[in-house]
Amino acid sequence: MPIVKRYEKNPILTADDVPYPVATVHNAGVCKYQDKYMMIFRSHLHNGRSILGLAESPDGFHFSVSKEPFMVPAADGIFGIYEEYGVEDPRITFIGGEYLITYSAYSRFGVRIGLAKTADFKKVERLSLITEADYRNVVIFPEKFNNLYARLDRPHSEICPWSIWISFSPDLRFWGESKLIMKPVQYHWDQMKIGPGAPPFKTEKGWLSIYHGVFPTMDGCVYRLGAVLHDLADPSRIIGVGDDWILQPEEIYEITGYVHNVVFSCGAVPEPDGTVKIYWGGADKVMCVGTAEISTLVNICLQNSRSAL
Ligand code: BMA
Fold this sequence. Notes:
mainly beta, six-stranded antiparallel sheet, four-stranded antiparallel sheet, 22 strands, 6% helix, globular, binds beta-D-mannopyranose
C-alpha cells in the first residue's frame, strides 16, 4: 500500500486546460475557499518565465481554469523591479480571515519572496517583499504563536547545505528570531538540499509539514517528498522527521516533462475524514494529486525518524 495514493486520473491539470498560451502547469498552492477548492498554479510562458494562474474545483480533483492569469509580474514600483523575471511556486495560507500567498519573485537581482493577500480570489493585493535575495520556499503557518506569525523558509548558503529555517513576525512585514531547524542528511534521499513544500497543517500530535528533498545522481537531481512534525506550541521544535520519502517520481508524468524526475509540492488540504489531499507538480509540467492518511504520515515522523539537524 503506497503512503500517498495517486489519483487514478492524474495529471489533473495540464497546459492544454489553460485558455491562454502556457507551456506548463505545475507547483500549485491549493486551499479550501467557501465550498470550493482554489488552486493557484505556476505556468512557464513560452519565453521561459513564469506567471500564476487560478483554477477552482468542487471536489479537489476536477479543476477548471480562469480565463485570465491570477498574477503576472508587477509592471512598476518595488514589485516591478523584483518580479522582472517572473513569479513562481505560490503557497496559500488562510489566517485572520484572509488568504496569504507567498511566491518566489525572480529578477536580475536574484530570487526573493513576495507576499500577497486575497479575500475572494478575485482581487489580489501585494503586501511586501519579505526576504532579500537567495530565498525560496516560504510557507506561513495558519496560526500565530505568542501573537507572532511564523514561517518556514530555505535560504541558499555556500557553507551549509540548503536547509529549513523558521522566522517570526508581528505584522508579516518584519521578520526575525530566525533559526535553522532542519538540515539535509548526508548520503540520504534528501542529502543535497531540502525546502518547505506545503504550508503546515495541524494534527493532534503536531504541525505536519510536507517538504521536498533532493538527491544528485549522474542523471541529474531527483526531487522527492518527505514529512516532518513540528511541536504544536513551539513550531521551531521538530518532534520527528520521517526517515523515508513519502513520494518519489514513478509515473511517466513525473519522470519526464519539463524537468525530469520531479515531484514538488506547494499545497496540501487536510480533510475532516482524516485524510489529506497532497498536490504536486509532476516533472515541472503538470499538476497531480494524491491522498494519504494523516495518521500514517504522523506515525512515519514519530516511529521511523531521523535527526532533524
Ligand atoms: C527548484 C525550483 C522548483 C522546481 C524544482 C525542480 O529549484 O525551481 O520550482 O520545481 O527546482 O526543477
